Structures are given as C-alpha cells and as structure tokens.
From TrEMBL, chain A:
Organism: Scylla paramamosain
Keyword line: Cytoplasm, Nucleus, Repeat
Compartment list: Cytoplasm; Nucleus
Protein known as: Armadillo repeat-containing protein 8
Gene3D superfamilies linked to this entry: Leucine-rich Repeat Variant
SUPFAM superfamilies: ARM repeat (SSF48371)
Keyword field contains Cytoplasm: yes
Automatic annotation (TrEMBL), chain B:
Pfam families registered for this protein in UniProt: CTLH (PF10607), LisH (PF08513)
Phylogenetic classification of the source organism: Eukaryota, Metazoa, Ecdysozoa, Arthropoda, Crustacea
Polar residues bias locations: 1-15
Protein name: CTLH domain-containing protein
Region Disordered, residue ranges: 1-23
Amino acid sequence: MEVLPTCMDVEHSRVYIDQLYSNDSQKCFQAVSELKFAVIGSVREKGSIIEQGVVVRLLQILRAPELDILLKTEVATVLNSLAKGLPEHAAALVQAGLLPVLWEQLESCPSGGSGSAYTQMLLCCLRSIYRQGCAPPPPAWDQKLLSSLIQHGYHPPSNQECVANILAHACKTNEQQQQLVDAGGADLVACLLCSPVSRVQLPALHCLTAMCFNNERVSSIIATKSYGGKAVPDLLVGLMARDRPRDMQLAAATALTFLHRAGALSADDPRIIYKTLQCLVRMCRRDREVWERVEAANTLAYLTEVSTDLQRTAAMTDHLIHTMNDYLKDTTPPNASVPQGISVSPVSCRQYDNPSTWPELMVGAALKVYASLGANDEDIRQRVIKTDVLMNTIVTSLSAASPPVQLAAVRCLHSLSRSVHTLRTTLQDHVVWRPLMTVLKTSNNEELVTVSSSTLCNLLLEFSPSKEQILDQGAVEFLCGLTRRPHPGLRLNAVWALMNMAFQAEHRVKVSILHHLGTDQIFRLLSDTDVHILMKTLGLLRNLLSTKGHIDQIMQCHGKEIMQAIILILEGEHSAEVKEQALCILANIADGDIAKSAIMSNEDVLKKLMNYMVIPNVKLQIAATFCISNLIWNVEEGAAERQNKLREMGVYKLLQNLMTTTDTGLFDKVKTALQQFH
Amino acid sequence: MRTNVDSDTDQSGTNEGVKAMETSEWLEETNKMHIHRADMNKLIMNYLVMEGFKEAAEKFSIEANIKPPMDLDQLDERIRIRTAIQNGQFQEAMRMVTALHPEILDDNSQLYFHLQQQVLIELIREGRVEEAVVYAQDHLAERGQRDPSILNELERTLALLAFDQPDTSPFGDLLHPSHRQKQVASELNAAILRAQNQEETTPLLAELLKLLLWAQDELNKKKVQYPYMTDLIKGQIEERK
C-alpha cells in the first residue's frame, strides 16, 4: 500500500517553491527535484508554475556561473518539461528570454566530457521549444552557434535527434538554408540518415526537406552528397521502402519531391517517376489514416504540378483519379482521434489537431491533385471531369470553404478551363462563373484573385457560352478595375480577359469596355513596365478595332487618343514584336471607311509607315504594306484622292522597289497593293 | 505499364476452399527445415534481455556460449522498475522512470494515464474512496478533458466507486491485478527501451508468434484447408476443416 504524494497539497507546494529561491544549494536542488516531479506529465502544473513566475528564477540559476552543474541539469530538465506543455507555455518561456540563455549555456559547454548530461538537456530543451513552432525565426543564423550546434549533432544518438529536430523546425528562410549547407549541415544530415536509430533518421529527413525546399543551389549540393558510399537520393529511396514506418516513408518521399522540384533530380529519374510517385500514390489509399492520405496527396500534387510525364504516369497509377474521388466524399469517422506518436512534418504538424477539420483537408488535397493532373493533358482532364462529385465540390468550395480550400478549388477549375470542350459543356452545366466572380470581387488574398482572374480569362474566350452571362454581371467594370491593381499578374490577367472579351464582340460590349477603361488607363497600360501587359493591351485595341462599322464608330469617339497611343508606341523604345502589333492596329484603322482619314490626315504617321516599309525587318514591312494596301483600296470611296496623295509622297515608287524582295509574304502584299493603284 | 500488384482489385485468382497439403506431408516438410542452434539461442537471449531476466540471461550466456547483446548491468534499471510495478508500487515506479528518463512520461501520455489509473484502482480496491476521488480530480481529470479516449477509460474506472462490490460489477475486469499490471509493465518497459534508442521494443519471439497467428488468420479468411496450430504452447496441430 503506497502513501499518496502530497505535492498536490497547496501548503506543501508553496514550501518547495519558496525553497527554490534559497541560497543553500542542497535545499535548492531538492526543490527543483520536487518541481520536476510535479510538472512532468501534468499540463496543469506546468501552467501553474509558469503563472507563478518561477521561470525567472530558473533562468537565473542557469546563468549563475558558480552554481553546480547537477543543479543546472535539473533546472534544464524542468524547463524542458515546461516546454512540452501547451503552445502557450512554450511561448511564455520564449517571452521570458529562455532561448538566449540556452544558446549561451550551450556555447559554454565543451563537446563531450563532464558537461554531457547538461548539454543533452540543453539540446532537449531547445528542441522542445522549436518543435512547438513558437520560436521567432531569426532572419539568419549566428554562424558560430550554428557550427557548434552541428558539431553536437554527430554524437550521441539523443543529441543527434535533438539537433536534427532543432534544425528541421528552425530552418525557414532561403538565407538560413544557405547558411546551414555552408556550415556543414548537408554532411551532418547525410550521416544522420544512415543512423541505425529511427528516432534520429526521421528528424534528419525533416531537416533535409526544410533545407531543400525551393532552393536550387542547396538541392543540387545535397543531391550529390553521400555517406557510407551511398548517394543521398539513394539513401532516401531506402527510407521510402515499405517496411519503414509510414511517417518515415512520407518524409523521404517529400524530400525527393522537393529535390525534384528544385531541379536537382529530373522528372525521368527512376527514383522519382518509379519510386517516389508510387510511394505517394500508395499512401493515398482508402485504408490509410487521414493524416497520411492528406500529406501524401498534397505532396503528390506538388510533385506533379509541372511535368506532363509525371502527370501522365500518376494518372494511370493505381486508380489514382478514382482514389481522389473518395477524398471528396469522406466524412470524419465518429471515433477519430489525433495521431499519437507520429511525426508529421514541421510545416503541417498542427493541422491535424482538430478532427472536425479533416474532411475539408481531404477535399483541399484532392482538388490540388486534380489541378496538377489536369494541367496539361486533355485526356486526363476529361477523365478527371467525369469524377462523380467533382464539379459540385468545386462550386461549393468556391463559395463556402476556407481560403486554402477555395484556392485549391480555383486551381482545379483553372486546369479544367484550359480545355475548350470542357468550357463548352461541363462548365456550362455547372454555373461556376458566379461563385468565381464573387471570389474575385470579395477576396483579399492576392494569390486567390490572380488564379481566379486567370480562370475567368479562359471562361471569356470566344467559344465560351457563359460569356454573355458573365458580361451581365458587371464583369467589364470589374475587370477594368483590376487593371489598376499593383500586382502585375492581376493586371495582366485583367487585360487579357478584356482582350478575350472584345474578340468578335458586339459593339455594345466594345463601347462598355472603352467606357469603363477610359483612354487614360489605356495610356497607362501602354506605358506599363511589364511588356506582356503592353502586348495584351495592344491586342485589346486590335480586337476593339475590328469590323468596319465598329472601327468607324470607335475612331469617331476616341480617334485622337488612339492615334496618340499608337504614335507613342511607334516612337518609343520597344521590341519589333510590339511595334508590329501597333502597325497591325493601324492597318485595322485603315480598313474603316471614315477612320481612314485619321491616318491620311496625319503626315507624320504616313511618313512612319513609309519608313517601316523599308526597314530591314520583314514582319514590320508586311504590316506597314498591309496598312498602305487598306488605305488605297480601290473599291472604297475616295480611293482616287488617297492614291494620288500617297503617290505624291513616293509610296508607289517604294512599292515598286519592294517587288525585288525575296520574301514571298511581303511580295504578295506588295503586289496586291500595286494592283490597287491606277 | 503494369498495374501495381498491391491494388486490392487485382486478384490473380482465388484460392477459396483449396487444400494446401495433407497433415503428414506438412509435418514431414516441417521436419526437414533446419533452424540453426545459434539463431534459436539468439531468440532466447533476446527474449530474456528484453523482458529483463538478468540472472537467466547471465546463466544462459554461459551455458549456450553466446554473448549478450549489451552490457547486462544496463538491465538493472528496467528490472527495478518492473519489480516496483509488480509489487503495486506505481508511484515509486513513476519516480524512478522520471529520474532516469525525464522525457518518457511527458512524451507518453497514454502510458502515464495507465500508471495513474493503476494507482486509482489500488485505492478503490482498498476501499479508500475519498482519497480515490481526490486523486482522480487532482491528477486524472485534466487528462480526461483533453483526450476523449482516456475519458472513457477514466469513467469506467470511477464507475467502480458506485458499486459496493466492485469486483462483481460490469467493470470488474479492471480490478484483476495480473492482466493490467503486466500490460502496464510491458508498456513502460517498451517506452524505456525506446528512450534508450533501441529499435526493437518487444521480444522477437512475440513478433514471430504474432506472424504465425496472422498467417493462420489470413488462410482461414480465404478458407484454405491446412494443418492448423491450435495450441501455440504445445505446438499442437490439427487438420482444419
């Protein structure tokens, strides 16, 4: 029969806390020991101790150089336990200034020797804090600290585990990645991957992943490292084998994925296309746990985002498209509980704390996979579209879900909208543009708005039946507004969308565009630093100025400004491509009955046209000649006067000279033009 | 490209109702199998070391002329802790574990709960009702709040208090000392081995038996007829019908 502990007795606890402040090191040690037994395993006690302000005293003890190392070790043990409590406990410790003290103490410890138990506890403490994700990331590491930390990471296994975890959770910026590699981090990780202890291998994998992410230089260095005669990528393949724990397989697959995406391993590397991809697909199966399926699907989506080969392979691996469908229908099982003892990656570890969010996580992951799979290949897109509840899920997610899932839905829709067939059929049956417009109008998330506007662009292509309905929704005004946004991606998509909208559009649509955009804004767009935006704006003008009747009407209202804009381009420092567009617009204007006069009355423009006819660039010559051709077109009223004027200026002679050209396209244009003259 | 053979819709043909072989044939084949003495010895040593039978391991090491996989003094702490548990001294066991491996109880919340549950059960068994309630409130309530599966267990345990004769109550199984204590002892033992960076935390013999039982189960599901081991301890084989 045991006597119960009385440390829950308030009187008693006050006594030992008071003793913490004693100068008698024996009494102090006793008190710290009692404290240790009280806080270990009890979240409530941890909170209570922190509230009582004991942490300050504990830090004081650590910092006092004269105090016994056994006492300090015991204090570090207590702090480690406190750090393992709730996130707020760890945050409170950081607030109290724990981190600098720990680093300082670690520095003063010799590697190995008598300080080793203390060193171990310090590292444990650091690791526990970093794992909680509340340590503010410095923009860059302290070089000296980093080196000594890495040194500690070579021996023994418990230190290795701590160092790997610290680095895995702390490495967040590009600069840190570089520093880590330069300080020997890659060598350390390669060594740790070969440890016989899986508790060391797993955080080493997370560390590797954190280093490689989106970093070309670091990834290429890591891919060439080896340990024990095996290259790191091969070591990773070994850790992905089916007899390994699931979290390890996933971490290894993620590492390989990041190496591929950062360019260190190509898409046709067998380790990627025949190993990594399969491992991830396997982990998406119905009989796996939720965290596994979500992580695997997200990683798979990232893996297959760009390469068509990978997309095609994935689409035919193990009924993947069908498996993803299951994700869309999943509901949380009633006895769902948070994964215990599983080490999910530092980035997503908090995601699974609340089982009620799991269905949404599944939907988001599946939509991302579909978005990647359907990005380039029409066959895959058609198979994806046939998926049972996909369209309904997209439509609901666009309006009702949290921003990450909304984004996934839009990305999926964007991939699907690249298919003409889909635009004309499925995307009509499910009115997707309405929630899409709502997202565009109401969201503050730049990424979301950019992808949405891209999708809208596709929906507005001429052959899209939903075009009319979108227009009725005030799309024109909205898109014109978007052209004023600071983000260049948005401006581009907006102008592109307007360009699509104007293509073979009715007069009223063109009028609406010009009205809402305004010639001022057109000028601004034509002066945009991004040349793509410039090109699309010219494209927009060209589309507006098509069809004779429209040309005349538009030039009547805005002729002066439009001519100014074109001259601006022709006189400016632009590539030949840009100038060609401007000349084509002139050619369109020259097609209008009344609009012709805008050119004919402008000697400057006529001279420019003549210059372009003789400039050594065939495309520009063709465009200029075409313009002239339109101006002198026989059939039209006033042709004789125009021909005389141009003949006087020397155009006829120029054309005759051009007959010697070797370019057939130009030759045809010149011949046609000459035939018009009489 | 071949489809992945793991797919559950890829059946290469069913074996339902197939007869594997005659029992006599089976036994003959089994007898032909030769297992090295050295391997057997290693299995036994592994079991002894893992379960903490130090004296037996030392003796066996001499008799079978086999080197123990580690310094046997390392077993001492695990032995002391297991002994404490077997004697019902759970508080003492918890303090010992914390002194040696301070992270274990923080990192293994379920284990800590089971240990505390044992304390609670002891109090209830001894009729120290008031103390039991206080203990539950002070230590276990917060754990139950955070983890619904623990709450369930906790409620079952506290329900014992409602009965005059708890051992005949529907939750009486909780009071059976041997099963529970052995479970907790094994759980704790495994946690300590993990903290010592051992990859294996259960004896290989146990794993082998599990494999045997699993294999038999799979064959039964597919209705294959084969000589079926009914008694693992005696190695008794019967024709499966």
